[in-house]
Amino acid sequence: MLVKAAMLEYLAEELPQTRKVITWNAAENDYMLAINIDLGFTPAGYDGAWQKVLR
């Protein structure tokens, strides 16, 4: 979390024209999702993947 927070601070200070930061997480990664929420990120969409095992 500290690294991500530091990068957000860096962007605000060094690249103030930056208006959007996009991040991605697996839906089952509750720990990282909680960190993103704590840092102020909000869900913007969901991506799904399908697979079929061939024998």
TrEMBL record:
Alphabetically ordered keywords of this record: Transferase
Protein name: Acetyltransferase
UniProt-recorded Gene Ontology molecular function terms: transferase activity
Provenance organism: Renibacterium salmoninarum (strain ATCC 33209 / DSM 20767 / JCM 11484 / NBRC 15589 / NCIMB 2235)
